[in-house]
Design a protein that fits this description.
By secondary structure, the chain is mostly beta strands. The protein is built from four helices and twelve strands. The chain has a single domain, classed as Immunoglobulin-like (Sandwich), CATH 2.60.40. The strands form two sheets. Strands 2, 3, 4, 5, 6, 7, 8, 9, 11 and 12 form a ten-stranded mixed β-sheet that branches. The termini are far apart.
């Protein structure tokens, strides 16, 4: 079954971003302050604008082996973090959400500022690998450094949302690997139905593994407490 999806807004400025040096966003937390740097380690997978959230440990953005939420599927399929950010912003278990950055090209880094406090000491991040059907990179509920000036670094893997089939067909893939206007339809045929560690690009249709495949980790995230 084929459903039409909206073309992600981040693709409109992608050509300019590929020549840039990354993005930054400013957090407004009143408690603890953190600097978060995301580095894209892939050869040719652009990351969509990431969603960053500080929260307590009673929630998680996803669970491996379980069905992805509709909001997470929008990130993984379209690079659209708005609905997920809106849902998280309304939760009393969330301190702050950042979802206003830009796409992160291969080999580039982006830095964000975000707030937290002692009761909301976990950080999660998700972003789409845009030259795929429904792959996303994810930092899952990692503890923030407690001391000022201290930092922690994390190797981040790519997951499959299981919400769309991995047909690798440009009619269903939003990224720059595909011709402009080729489409961003959705096909649930052969969708796995649960989140799992993504097994990469296999050359089934339009995506060449030599260019667009990867091995985990796909990103390094470094978190430093600044205040």
């Amino acid at each position: 079954m084929r459903h039409r999806k909206n073309i992600p807004a981040f693709l409109l400025g992608l050509t300019l971003l590929l020549a840039g040096t990354g993005a930054s966003a400013d957090g407004q937390g009143n408690g603890l302050h953190y600097e978060v740097t995301i580095t894209n380690l892939t050869k040719a997978q652009v990351f969509s604008p990431p969603v960053l959230v500080t929260h307590n440990r009673s929630i998680a953005l996803f669970e491996a082996g379980a069905e992805a939420s509709a909001e997470l599927a929008m990130v993984a399929e379209d690079g659209n973090g708005g609905p997920l950010a809106d849902t998280l912003s309304g939760s009393p278990r969330v301190f702050e959400v950042q979802a206003t950055g830009a796409a992160i090209p291969p080999g580039m880094s982006a830095t964000y500022l975000i707030g937290a406090d002692k009761r909301f000491d976990a950080l999660s991040i998700v972003a789409m690998l845009v030259n795929t059907n429904d792959a996303f990179m994810a930092l899952d509920s990692e503890r923030l450094p407690r001391e000022r000036g201290k930092s922690r670094s994390f190797e981040v893997d790519a997951y499959d949302a299981g919400s769309e089939g991995n047909n690798e067909n440009c009619a269903f893939v939003p990224g720059p690997a595909c011709p402009a206007g080729s489409g961003n339809a959705r096909s649930v045929a052969d969708a796995e139905g649960y989140v799992y560690v993504h097994n990469g690009v296999h050359g089934i249709a339009d995506l060449a593994p030599a260019a667009y495949d990867w091995r985990n980790p796909v990103a390094i995230v470094t978190v430093r407490r600044t205040r």
